[in-house]
Amino acid sequence: MAPLIQSVLHPAGVQAARLNQLWWVMFWVCTVVFISVLTALAMAIARGRRSASNASDATLTGSVGAAVGISVAALLVLLTASEITGRDLDALKAQNALRIQITGNQWWWDVQYLNPDPSLTVVTANEIHVPVGRPVGIVAKSNDVIHSLWIPALHGKRDLLPGRQSEIWLQADRAGVYRGQCAEYCGAQHAKMALTVVADLPDDFERWLSHMRGPAPPPATESQMRGRDVIERGPCAMCHSIAGTLAGGRTAPDLTHLASRSAIGAGSIPNTRGNLAGWIADPQHIKPGNKMPATGLASEELQALLDYLETLK
Amino acid sequence: MGIRAQRRGLFLTVAGIAFMISACQKPTSDTVQQSPASARALSGSLADPARLQQDDGQWVMSAKNYAATRFSSLGEITPANVKQMGVAWTFSTGVTAGHEGPPLVVGDTMYLVTPWPNILYAFDLTKPGAPIKWQYDPKPLGAAKGVACCDIVNRGAAYANGAIFFNALDGRTMSIDAATGKERWVTQLTDINRGETMTMAPLVVKGKVFVGNSGGEFGVRGWLTALDADSGKTAWRAYSTGPDKDVLIGPTFKPHYDSDRGKDLGITTWPGEAWRIGGGTVWGWLSYDPEADLLYYGTANPGPWNPEQRPGDNKWTAGMFARSPDTGEARWFYQTSPHDLYDHDGVNEMVLADLQMNGGTRKVLMRADRNGLLYVIDRLTGEVLSATPFVPVNSNKGVDLKSGRLIPVKEKESKQGMVVRDICPAAPGAKDEQPMAFSPKTGLLYIPHNNVCMDFEGTAVSYIAGTPYVGASVVYKAGPGGNRGFFTAWDPLAGKPKWQIKESFPVWSGALVANDVVFYGTMEGWFKAVDANTGQLLWQFKCGSGIIGHPMAFKGPDGHEYIAVTAGIGGWPGAIVSADLDPRDATAGNGWGGMLADLKKTTTKGGMLYVFTVGGGT
Amino acid sequence: MGRFTFALVCTMAATLGCERETRRYTELPAAANRSTAVRLTTLQPGSPQPISNVQSPYQYNAYGLAEGKRLYAAYNCAGCHGVAGGGAIGPALMDDKWIYGSHADQIFSSISQGRPDGMPSFGGHIPDQQIWQLVGYVQSLAGLVSQDAATSRNDDQIVGKPENRIEGTKQIQTGHR
Questions:
Q1: B217 catalytic, yes or no?
Q2: Looking at B343, B433, B455, B561, which residue is catalytic?
Q3: What domains sit in chain A, N to C, each tagged with a CATH number?
Q4: ipTM value of the model?
Q5: Residue B248's pLDDT band (boundaries 50, 70, 90)?
Q6: Of A94, A113, B35, B118, which has the highest C-beta tally within 10 A?
Q7: Is B464 on the interface with A (CB under 8 A)?
Q8: Exposed/middle/buried for C138, CB within 10 Å: 0-12, 13-18, 19+?
Q9: What is the pTM of this model?
């Protein structure tokens, strides 16, 4: 069976587990209510045919009272469960939390790992790593329209609003790969706006994060050198950035560690050389309407570019 | 071709050497300060700017002297007779951009460098009407105009040892023989494809020419470079960001405050590689204290303006350095605006003076900063003695004198994607580059400045080499009171104004104190003389275009005192007129459109040099 | 100088002169074509040919104009020409004065080729399609596109009239700033 990477019913973190719990409480309460109501309805239908109403006012008052009582009780159970879950969700806020800023764009996620020491911040896109067992505070923003961040295995949804800042706190308790998805319709490619979440063991995570702090390695071969040249002299640098090169664009995903990501086009296709070549040659074919234009690179330029991009681990 | 060029080079070298030898043989005298102007010589040890700057008959550097006082003790023009002042002669530069910077007078010659195309003119003051003696055209690239943020200005030249030093907009520093107008050397220092230009006035100290780059709005990495005055070769370069070795921070660096101590703060106070494109250019004014042997200069804003793209203190931008002129080693640094939120460059001039404070004499520097505070700082240690607001300020609550840190105001912090309204002072600051003057006679600072607030929205911005790296939508508006400018006489000891003149437009000209009379110009084109003690308007003259130039005083070969100033609207605010911007866009001119629409109906462009004297024009 | 050397020099000079002195009375057909290049001036010898027949492909296209608006910010055009086209380092784009002409192909060539007075050359750095989108947006700043197609949406600080409320006036080629 394929791993359930995007399922609310298979929580991988404490927040999602709490929501899952609440969900089951609601499910069972609602199920009981639903069955009771249907049963009562069926009984009423059956009895109504038999006799005209001769129930006394007292009986009626008793029935209505019981019904109201049960309803209020059920409501209270749900309210309490909801309140408790809400408080529990809030309780994750912690001082030592990892802080990640995620900014929604049409149709990709800009990711920054914040740090009180600014030189330790990390910029990446469309794929986040989180350490298992450590709370993560996500600062959610948007650069254009309203998006919504939803990683079902870790937490509920949180809207990303232009001009505002919201927060969501989550924690992964199981190592693994999970999938997030934009959950608020945001335009033509709303469906292809996915966020890969990799939950690493703490040591692996620290290793990953410190690797991400470094700039892109200098090109080693002639072809890689040519590839970097294609980026700096060509259209790529107008929108993308690669730390350590002249490319400093902010309107498209950061490519400094592109090769370490599992997918391209915000989860559109797996990150392989062939797919990358296809994407660069004609991104509109793969994800129509996305903001990357066909760049018209010559095949020699494209191959050199791919040689270089593959080094951006 | 190669051989021919070599031969020509050899010929020029030989000719140059021959010329230099002949120049050395000119008669020299050691009495420069007393001698009549007509007898002043240009050559040899006499030409040392350290001495010339003390001679009030001449004006050999932009700021008049190393202490940057713009004070002249020439006393022929007095409050009593200034009413009889009139035009002695004029000169049209033929350039329609903003004319900042003063002309120089050395011996019997006046030197004026225009805005782009940066032509250097020499005028013979001994002849009627001061005809052109020679002119030098450096032919700067037109493309450079596309990366000059705030009009294509030039802030003046410097004289030393028989040469005029100045910068061309396309990033060249040059040394021109003051007598003949022949080129001595030209050094290319910047790359316009990276957005780097040069607009500042060099300073010459002990055989070195100090120049800095412009381009804080283009993601350049700021620096100050020392060139050998004889050869034009780089002696040292101190960057404003990056590792300590690039910033020339070593064991002699002793900043006064803790926040400036630590290893490689020029990297660790920036995210990632942002320090490489972090600004901190050096386009403003330099001062020098010969006794302490310290060079003072300010570093400009960090880039981009959008502060969210550069979390951290962004060292060493928006602050001031004291360095050894010989080696460039930093001695202290003070950051006026850590993690600058409003484009508050720290490049304004620093006036050096010895003030009687707390019962003793303190060697201080005074700086009226963009952030609205007038700093009095111990120039030997970098300790802030006082920081007093000189305009209405709501974006900071002054300086915590213990930590030296500017106290920010949370609700006025600029942000990305949000419009923060009514931030005072605005991006051009309470006062921009327009230099103030200081009179040791009155003990007052004469500050030409702005009264401008703004609405600010940070926007995400890409670094694309050679294009603006700003990331902000800004709209300026008149500050409290509605007048957009002030001319203020400030008492630095009392920390309050002695008198103040309201002006309709920002006062973007420099100030000059000629003994008891203070001069400044307005953007309408009025050149004004006011009483240094009372601020009473004594005389005014309407020039052909708005004034953003820096007035200067000199003694002519005839022994009389003259005042010179350039008119020619432009500069950052005046570009509305000089570059014919459309004020229907409130961000036109990077924020001035909303508040300077009436300037287009008030003045027109055109550069003209005016020279005044008592009884002139008769 | 030896006679041989003299002869050699003469021969070389004569050989070198050959190409210079060639008179080609007919050229390859392509080279002989009359130019249909973008004209940057209205002045022509004789009776003028049309300045331009090229329309912006996005003149009536809301998506293209909106993309132009996005690119105007993304490529830092706003930094020089003002957020609403009021100008700063570069000339104003919202007024009726044009240095190099207001026709679509004239604006296209200004963006693509650059101009020696400071306009960077974007050709090769961005695809032609995006240049055309920018052309459309730049024209909309001066009210030169269909008002029902011009973008009205503004996500940031309002600093001028929305593009679809700007009325086009007679555009003049001034040739200077």
A1: yes
A2: B343
A3: 1-48+56-202 (2.60.40.420), 222-309 (2.60.40.420)
A4: 0.91
A5: very high
A6: B118
A7: yes
A8: buried
A9: 0.91
